[in-house]
Structures are given as C-alpha cells and as structure tokens.
Amino acid sequence: MTDAQPIASLLRDTTGDASLRTWRIDDAPALLSAWTDPDVARWNGVPPEPSIELATKWLTGASRQTTASPSIDIVLVDDNDQVLGEVGFVIDRQRQVAEVGFWVGAAHRRHGVGSRLLAAARQLAPQLELERAFAISEAENEAAIALLGACGWPEVATTTSKRRAFLLPTPSPT
Ligand SMILES: CC(C)(COP(=O)(O)OP(=O)(O)OC[C@H]1O[C@@H](n2cnc3c(N)ncnc32)[C@H](O)[C@@H]1OP(=O)(O)O)[C@@H](O)C(=O)NCCC(=O)NCCS
Fold it and tell me: Which domains does the chain have, with CATH numbers?
C-alpha cells in the first residue's frame, strides 16, 4: 500500500457555496444533532446513547483519519462552515472493499447535498486503493434509493429482500 496521506490533502472543493472538509472536534454539536435526527437514527448506525462527550470522542478519532484508516468520513459545509451532511467509507482492508454511508441534515435535504456527497465519494475512492465500494440501503429507505438511482450508482444483487446494494461508479471526468 502507498504511504498514508491525510484526507484533507485529497479534498478538492466542489462548487459554489459549499465545500468538503474532514470532521473537527468542534463539530460535536453538529454530529450530536445528526445522531439524534430520527431519520439518521433509523437508517444509519448511531450510538444508542448519543451525547456531546461521545461525539467529541468520536470526532477526536475522525479528525486523525488518513487514507490508511479503516473508516474515512468527510463532510460538506456551507459558507458559514456549518455541516450539511456526511459521507463515509468503512473499509475492509483485506478484501479492499468498502461500504459507503451518508446522511444529510434534515434542514438541508432536497437541495442537492446528498448528490454532492456521493460525487465526493466517487472522486475520493480511487485514492483509497479499493477494489469495490457499495452503498447498502434498507429496501424501505425510499430517499436513499432514489438518491443512489439519481446519481447513477448501478444496483447489484443482494441475498436478501430487506436490503438493496448499489455499486460506486468510477470517477466522473473532471
Ligand atoms: C437520503 C438522503 C441522504 C438524500 O439527501 P438529499 O440531500 O436530500 O438528496 P438530493 O437533494 O441530492 O437529492 C437528489 C435526488 O435524489 C432523489 N431523492 C432524494 N431524496 C428523495 C426523497 N425523499 N424522495 C424521493 N426522491 C428523493 C430525487 O431524485 C432528488 O432530486 P430532486 O430533488 O431534484 O427531485 C437524505 O434524505 C437523508 O439524509 N436521509 C436520512 C439518512 C439516510 O437515509 N441515509 C442513507 C442511509 S443508506
């Protein structure tokens, strides 16, 4: 594997009034707010007893992530540096396979944030030395499935009717 690099060095801003960055410890209130959002709690893995202390601890780890870490998480922020949403990879390094997870803050949905997060994952993935990456959604999560379809992630077969899987496409041309 090539030398680990800080994630921040790989993030290029996308466009306009929002930009990508890594998590920082002072984002704890934003992370706690996401953990306590009913939709994020329902569809993403969140701690059973979220607290500002737990969010701070989690962010201490996240702020040190590199391309060699087992988890890599990035956020899209607005021009006031407020977190709009997150996309992350959980990586099985032996198999070079990753699962991509994502959420958008309730107040920011249906404004293209999710699409930008998935585009960011698509641009970042080649630098993580992955064979493949998938997003896996509960079959009932209509918003996530619609987003993945709208962003052109092809669906692949699963062994269960409860979850649907979508393959991360190759990077879009820059
Ligand atoms: C799923 C989620 C990330 C979508 O984020 P978003 O920022 O609202 O998505 P976008 O605005 O980029 O949507 C792009 C397109 O996806 C589709 N889409 C997104 N949300 C949708 C919804 N609730 N219903 C139907 N289609 C939807 C639409 O085609 C949309 O385009 P349009 O707004 O022009 O119609 C957001 O609803 C969310 O955070 N949900 C809770 C957490 C979650 O489900 N995470 C995924 C776990 S697998």
Answer: 7-167 (3.40.630.30)
